[in-house]
Amino acid sequence: MSNYHIKHLEEYYQVYRKSVREPENFWEEVAEEHFMWQKKWDHVLSWDFIKPEVKWFEGAQLNITENCIDRHLATRGNKTAILFEPNDPKEDAEHITYTQLHQRVNKFANVLKDQGIKKGDRVCVYLPMIPELAIAVLACARIGAIHSVVFAGFSATALSTRINDSDCKMVITSDGSYRGAKTIDLKGIVDEALNECTCVETVLVAKRIHSDIDMKSGRDKWLQPLLDAASTDCKAALMNAEDPLFILYTSGSTGLPKGMVHTTAGYMVYTAYSFKNAFQYKEDDVYWCTADIGWITGHSYIVYGPLANGATTIMFEGVPSYPDFGRFWEIIEKHKVNQFYTAPTAIRALAKQGLELVEKYDLSTLKVLGSVGEPINEEAWHWYNDNVGKKKSPIVDTWWQTETGGIMITPIPFVTPTKPTYATLPFIGIQPALMDEDGNELKGNQIDGRLCIKFPWPSMARTIWGNHQRYKDTYFSAYKNMYFTGDGALRDDVGYYRITGRVDDVIIVSGHNLGTAPIEDAINEHPAVAESAIVGFPHDVKGNALYGYVILKDVGETRDQDNLRKEINQIITEHIGPIAKLDKIQFTKGLPKTRSGKIMRRILRKIAHKDTSNLGDTSTLLNPEVVQDIMDNAL
Ligand code: WT7
Hints:
By secondary structure, this protein is an alpha/beta fold. The chain folds into two domains: 2-319 and 398-475, 3-Layer(aba) Sandwich (Rossmann fold); 506-632, GMP Synthetase, Chain A, domain 3 (2-Layer Sandwich), CATH 3.30.300.30. 31% of the residues lie in helices and 23% in strands. The chain is built from 20 helices and 30 strands. Strands 12-11-8-6-7-14-15-23 form an eight-stranded mixed beta sheet, with helices on both faces. 51% of the residues are buried. The chain binds 5'-O-[(S)-butoxy(hydroxy)phosphoryl]adenosine. 5'-O-[(S)-butoxy(hydroxy)phosphoryl]adenosine binds at residues 250, 295-297, 371-375, 397-402, 423, 485-487, 499, 502, 508, 513.
């Protein structure tokens, strides 16, 4: 028996031990008992963290959509698979049953085929949170095309970079999108992006806001008429276990975004197994994750993980503040949500609104609360626990990453006693290690260090699209034979982990992963800017906000500084998206640099944090005088 569903703490420890001592036997049993294979594997795992190369279930053949859809048809055909809640609460919610999902995915898959998409081709999906998004993703998987979903809040430049990096042949988008009271001209953004892309042959356009848009003849096609004409039968492509399922971009500390490549079998097994346990999903529960499918959270825990378990998963198109800040609670009441998974930044924003909005709604169906994306601070944890969970719904603080594919450290609700701000224990099969800066593993408890993972797990990303060397350099070079996460963590006296935050130049703003380098590159495009440096500083809603230090080319620049600030944020919006805008911009004469020319961000960080009592070792500074000047003019 594979212990697919863990129900008490002793069982957790027992299953965990097995997953560490005999990982191959453990995952083989899970894979064997709970999934549908066209051909079983020859070999469960082969791995080498030096190359690095990891393969799970080699030799197996399957299609993930048969596992997420077809196999439920006999028993759950009329059960709601996807429950779509639109931006406008006056518009009806849509219940898509497993049978309907099957038909819609097959139709969409046939459209992709008719438009010349073949196994292995890359398809960029740039859609708002409407059913077509999940259906497009599943349709790609149905025929073995590799989907690359780009969050529909990204700018034209960010979109074209991602399309070109993986040579996408097609873009799937919509005429526009709703976001609270606003509408966004998505198709216009796609048109602008495609001026920079020669690889895209076809653009499929879903209608959402019914706006009048330009359709480029030969390239752009309305989706609906093609779907209407397509057949509801589409044989699932036979995929090898290690065939890529999707690419998803995440920011690095330097350079272009990294196209993380996730493969088929291991990703499916791990996301399904972790979904079941981390949320204790039971048949007939209604599960809601508020993330966007443009992020890994949506891939793994709105689409694949829930559907692989035959769950009902909500897709919400809107924002927490529209029509008012009670929207989340209204949806929980309306759809009788049992598991609710959101981000600390949303919790903090909602906590600011006063309790009347929460108390107005019946939240009694809630059983499990989840948190993801950044460390959850103590205050937010208690507010969530007291007012949303009414002290009876355990909070699962789930730590993981785009790269890990699935949840890595988390309490199992009703199994693991929770502790505010702690992600608690490693999930089944996950072997964390804390390292010091010299590469030694820190054994024992009550210790903090850099968080690494010692052993492969089924849903880990296998490479960076087109750049395996960068994959090796970023994740497998800091510590020998280990995957390095980029996060710091501490382990308390009972072995619980608390994630302390990034130790590299990635800053998490409102749960969004932002690299400093691309933002600095964008700022430096402004004709008046000579150089810039970005750091994070604490923000009560966003967790971190961005603080930019900017050197102007003409030191005597007489232009209105507030205008310059606006222009800089405008450039950032165009290059990356509004999420990367700076909260504070300080114009400065210089930046603190080491003799080798490296910006000492540590000092800039301290100034932004208003923590300048001890700046640490500044002996390697080339220009110590600028530090005082920056401190005197700090914002
Ligand atoms: C980074 C990964 C995976 C879901 C969304 C983010 C931070 C994520 C937690 C948590 C503390 C967290 C880490 C991680 N992070 N979850 N529960 N507690 N920090 O995915 O965009 O790839 O970002 O988010 O710093 O490295 P991502």
